[in-house]
Amino acid sequence: MSTIRVEHLTKHFGPKRAVDDVSFTVSTGEVLGFLGPNGAGKSTTMRMVTGFIPPTSGRVWIGGHDMWENPIPAKRLIGYLPENAPAYTDMTVYGFLSFVAELRGLRGQARKQAVHRVVELCFLESVLHQSVETLSKGYRHRTCLAQALLHDPPVLVLDEPTDGLDPNQKHEVRTLIRRMGEKKAIIFSTHILEEVDAACTRAIIIDRGRIVANGTPAELRARSELAGAVTLQIRRVAAAEVSRRLYQVPGVKRVSILEEQEDRVRARVFPAQPGINGTFTRAVGEAVQGWVLEELRVEEGRLDEVFRSITMPDTVRETS
Amino acid sequence: MNNIWAVVKRELSGYFASPVAYVYIVIFLLLSGFFTFMVGGFFERGEASLTAFFLWHPWFYLFLVPAVGMRLWAEERRVGTLELLLTMPITAWQAIVGKFFASWLFLGLALALTFPLVITVNYLGDPDNGVIFAAYCGSFLMAGAYLAITCMTSALTRNQVISFILAVVICLFLVLAGFPPVTNLLARWSAPLVELVASFSFITHFDAFQKGMLDTRDVVYFLSVMVLALFSTSVILRSLRAG
Ligand SMILES: Nc1ncnc2c1ncn2[C@@H]1O[C@H](COP(=O)(O)OP(=O)(O)OP(=O)(O)O)[C@@H](O)[C@H]1O
Ligand SMILES: [Mg+2]
Q1: For strand A185-189 and strand A155-159, is the pairing parallel, antiparallel, or unpaired?
Q2: Coil, helix or strand for A235?
Q3: Beta-carbon neighbour count of residue B218 at 10 Å?
Q4: Angle at A194 between CA A173 and CA A33, to 5 degrees
Q5: Nearest CA, atom 30, ligand 1
Q6: What distance in Å separates the CA atoms of residue A157 and residue A180, rounded to the nearest whole number?
Q7: Mind listing the domains of chain A with CATH numbers?
Q8: What is the extent of the structural domain holding B196?
């Protein structure tokens, strides 16, 4: 069952098209990473999914409820961490969490337990009775994250959940997201590509309001020019000879010499069809027989390269 | 209902979390004392009534009510909590009404704390407490009307000061429309117009309450100002979200 369903979502701000015909679904047990350059429309999409801003056109369903026709039941299912983690500055952390719990319909003992649970989950004990106004950025972020988890919602929408956190906390939050993702449908946006590997089951890259890639981290990586390329380090063979022989490998697109020292050459062979491909790898292996190999590695492809080649196709360069 | 109450509690705790609320109440009491005794000539009147006290309410509410209401939505927009509040499972209307009631209750508290004046006149003479009660009701309703307008201007901007100024300007029009020097000026020009303009004024409708009359038309007037202003608030918030 798809818990979040978004169809042809479009948002105009005046003449500007911030989100353009975006469709996707997220099922329970999936963690969807939202990637894209600044201003791509990630936050705008999330604001429409959570019912904060109305779309110009398109529809959003949360657990079968249409967000714009039946917002209250739809909103009940969502926990939302907005960008920049806003929180009421004139309250204490405890007061703030209690207030949100109350709006979430938690009363009495259930409310106390819920607050206690998220305080533990987000490590807030030490600031529980501190005013939100005086919190450090990371703690404010965690307070707002805690707020999203209070009612243990089946759907989580987190806009840059690790922004402003220290490395340990980043790690904790990623682990938390991955763990919660087993039983929830989660969308989160990030600028940190390692988080895609660390927490996502699937990722979407959005650029200028449009979805430009959608797949598992491995699928995305396979779109990299680097994917399936073979990197070699060879001793006592001239670079020209290495290059000549590797160009004869069937299915080769390009050979590049990465490094050349007196008696050592580092080279990379790119397949014509990016993606890991046993035939190509074997062909390279056969071509280099008889040489003294110091390294032979099949590249998986790199997300940052895919990201750049998709969102900035003109400036992409080869990376080593 | 529960949601409205949760919002009311939050707002009220927001007021009392800082010393500003207490300072405000003290200022409110000092000012009402000042107007009653110094400007209103409470003692010179030689009568046991609170006329001198209520006479000034339309004027000092002009500044005191926007000061209470200016932060309601402006602050919510500035800090970004608007996004949090409106993605909770509550309707925008519940949030608007909850915030409004909280501030109205706060104003009611400040107004109620002027009770020593009632005791004083009762001690000094034999006032008509019915009139005093009616005037308190009218004053509270009028405060609600000022506040609803402030709510609306507060939703218009992220800046509390701008929302304060806008509220003062709009309320000033509504006060002046029934202020005798202004109505006299207009009367020289066109008599039917005066009545029309004055019928929109806070002063005109507050007048009857001061005389001890609880006229439904006046009550309806203040309530409709509130409903209209709060409705405008919801329209403003909706168009804000639409971008
Ligand atoms: N309320 C608004 N009015 C006008 N334009 C807006 C509004 N909100 C967003 N935009 C525009 O829409 C575009 C998308 O913005 P959005 O905040 O969704 O980007 P983002 O992908 O979240 O970027 P970032 O990575 O910087 O957070 C931007 O060009 C932004 O200027
Ligand atoms: Mg954003």
Answers
A1: parallel
A2: strand
A3: 20
A4: 70
A5: A39
A6: 12
A7: 4-221 (3.40.50.300), 230-311 (3.30.70)
A8: 2-238
What's the first-to-final CA gap in chain B, in angstroms?
Answer: 29
Which residues, in sequence order, are bridge partners of residue A158? Answer: A81, A188
**Residue B178 maps to a domain:** yes
- Contacts of residue B12 in chain A, CB cutoff 8 Å? none
User: What residues form DSSP beta bridges with A156?
Assistant: A79, A186
| CB within 8 Å: B18 and A90 | yes
Q: What is the dihedral of CA B198, B204, B205, B208, to 10 degrees?
A: -150
Is B71 among the domain residues?
Answer: yes
Give the tens place of pLDDT for each residue, B48-66.
677 778 888 888 899 999 9
Residue A132 Cα, gap to closest chain B Cα (Å): 12
Phi then psi for residue B56, to 5 deg, are -90, -5
| Distance from the A46 Cα atom to the nearest Cα atom in chain B, whole angstroms | 11
- For residue A47, the surrounding DSSP H or E stretch is helix A42-49
Q: Are strands A31-35 and A57-62 parallel, antiparallel or unpaired?
A: unpaired
CA–CA separation, A284 vs B202, rounded Å? 89
Alpha carbon B144 to its chain centroid, in Å, reads 4
The total of other beta-carbon atoms located within 10 Å of residue A213's CB is 18
Asked casually if ipTM beats, i.e. exceeds, 0.85, the reply is yes
Compute, in angstroms, the gap from residue A19 CA to the centroid of ligand 2. 12
Residue A299, token pair as written in the block: 């590249």
The encoded tokens of residue A144 equal 């707002």
CB B54 within 8 A of CB B211: no
Q: Measured in Å, how far apart are chain A's first and last C-alpha atoms?
A: 42
pTM for the complete prediction? 0.88
Using DSSP's 3-state secondary structure scheme, residue A67 falls into coil
Residues A161 and A175: their CA atoms lie apart, in Å, by 12
Is there a domain that residue B156 lies in?
A: yes
What tokens appear for B220 in the block? 């309806």
| Tokens linked to A244 | 């000549």
Under a CB-based contact definition with an 8 Å cutoff, are residues A62 and A74 in contact? yes
AA letter at A149: L
Reported confidence tier of residue A299, pLDDT bands at 50, 70, 90: confident
pLDDT digits (tens, 9 = 90+) for A100-144: 999 999 999 999 999 999 999 999 999 999 999 999 999 999 999
* Residue A175 bridge partners (DSSP): none
**Residues of chain B with C-beta less than 8 angstroms from the C-beta of A158:** none
Coil vs helix vs strand at B230: helix
Pairwise CA distance, residues A317 & A304, whole Å: 12
How many CB atoms within 10 Å of residue A273? 11
The domain tally of chain B equals 1
